[in-house]
Amino acid sequence: MACVTDESWVALPKMLSERLSLREEEEVEEEPGFFDSESAAYRLEKVFPVYALGIPKPEPDPVVVADSSGDPIWDAVREEAKLEAEKEPILSSFLYASILAHECLEQALAFVIANRLQNATLLATQLMDIFSDVMMHDRDIQRSVRLDVQAFKERDPACLSYCSALLYLKGYHALQVYRVAHSLWTRGRKVLALALQSRVSEVFGVDIHPASNIGEGVLLDHGTGVVIGETAVIGNRVSLMQGVTLGGTGKEIGDRHPKIGEGALIGASATILGNIKIGRGAMIAACSLVLKDVPPHSMVAGIPSKVIGYVDEKDPSLTMKHDATKEFFENVAVNFRDARSSGGPAPENSDGST
Fold first, then answer.
1. CA–CA separation, 247 vs 3, rounded Å?
2. How many angstroms separate the Cα of 13 from the Cα of each of 38, 43, 246?
3. Rounded CA gap, 7 and 230, in Å?
4. Residue 73 to residue 162: CA distance in whole angstroms
5. Are the C-beta atoms of residues 354 and 346 closer than 8 Å to each other?
6. Model pLDDT for residues 199-239, shown as the tens digit of each residue
7. How do 271-273 and 289-290 pair as beta strands?
8. Phi, psi of 126 (to 5 degrees)
9. Banded pLDDT at 153 (limits 50, 70, 90)
10. Rounded to 5 degrees, what are φ and ψ at 290?
11. Cis peptide leading into residue 304 (ω within 30°)
């Protein structure tokens, strides 16, 4: 995994002169552009002062940075950023400061989320130190950061590129801050973890308790209004739409929040309450209220929810086919009508009741 050394920042002039170029080698002789070392240093310093970047000023002995080769996600992010800078020169300094000035994905991500969460008393430089320190020393987070951004790129049709997910999607940002906060929580730094949770809730409208347990390759599509309680567990490859609540049912203490199986798809504004299990590969329809266990690979809908069928896909979270049940809904409606007219039993709820 790239970029895992303790000391991972390099002097800005060194990066400007040696690490970055938007031009191919054959284009070196062209007229100097924005990213030529001297002009870039001047313009970047003018728009994003060194202290705002959180990168220390040059020291006599430059820091040695880990080799960032062999990271296809980071390579893709950098190439996308270069192309975007060419297409939209007005964003060049922003793209440089956010992505191209960094040696690896962890550094760039730390810079982006730190600048989004900063306020008058919680400085971007402080936040960036926290984020980078945790991510640089935690290989599980490094893996999750990449699998999550891949999930956003592959499952969200509005996500144009890895670069756009890293820069703009607050669902991705909120999820990565949670991962840092969760690491801090497990190490006993609960006050700091809760402070990050509070700040994410303020800025992104996403409330994830740092003690919750979330797998990798997770998509928070849009993210707005998502609430995940303290003892909630979310498996790998789960997709949650906006407004999803994984909450408790009252003032009970202890293990009181839902457990979501791998590959599940949770529709917009679905509310799942209590220490219940949502089976692997299940699909929860939008606006459903789920109060009972949901069998694996089943579809549930309604208030309260009922099992209305079963999912063919192993992981509906990957296909994101929210309308896949349309034909089934029509068949259910016809069968229900026929059952009522013939005096037969009504369809059952997920707990066996009618």
1. 37
2. 9, 13, 47
3. 33
4. 8
5. yes
6. 999 999 999 999 999 999 999 999 899 999 999 999 999 99
7. parallel
8. -65, -45
9. very high
10. -110, 120
11. yes
